[in-house]
Specification:
With 120 residues, the protein is of the alpha+beta class. The chain has a single domain, classed as Cation efflux protein, cytoplasmic domain (Alpha-Beta Plaits, 2-Layer Sandwich), CATH 3.30.70.1350. It is built from three helices and six strands; from the N terminus they run ββαβαββαβ. The strands form two sheets. Strands 3, 4, 5 and 6 form a four-stranded mixed beta sheet that branches. The chain has a two-stranded antiparallel ribbon with strand order 1-2. A hairpin with a 2-residue loop joins β4 and β5. It is elongated.
Length: 120
């Protein structure tokens, strides 16, 4: 993590944005969605491993290739919420946040719902 950068070349030099900044943007955007219970849990560990997420507790994987951003997010949805609706809200929020904060084109945002969280 933090080894990859988005680089924007300009006439005055380059601007480099760390992967860690993107992780923060994604977490903040996901945190604003009411139907999301958590970014991931133990049930998502196998899925996280398949996606190449080293720390399943984070639930976010960012890939930067050829100036394009691809983001995979593993979430838990609160019981009673519309799963597809919540996932679409996450996609929209993350897309808008990354697009507005980086000035780059829209990222590819894949949302993986690993489970449903029940109130205690």
């Amino acid at each position: 993590m933090g080894e990859n950068y988005i680089t924007c070349q300009g006439e005055k030099g380059s601007i480099n944005i760390s992967e860690d900044v993107l992780y923060s943007m994604v977490r903040a955007a996901v945190g604003e969605i009411d139907g999301v219970a958590a970014l991931s849990n133990n049930a998502g560990a196998e899925l996280a491993e398949l996606l190449g997420i080293k720390n399943a507790g984070k639930g976010v994987k960012v890939q930067i290739a050829e100036g394009k951003i691809s983001i995979d997010i593993i979430i838990m949805v609160r019981y009673g919420e519309n799963v597809v609706g919540v996932a679409k809200q996450v996609q929209d929020a993350v897309t808008a946040a990354v697009e507005s904060m980086t000035g780059m084109g829209a990222p590819v945002v894949n949302v993986h719902v690993s489970g449903v969280a029940f109130d205690k």
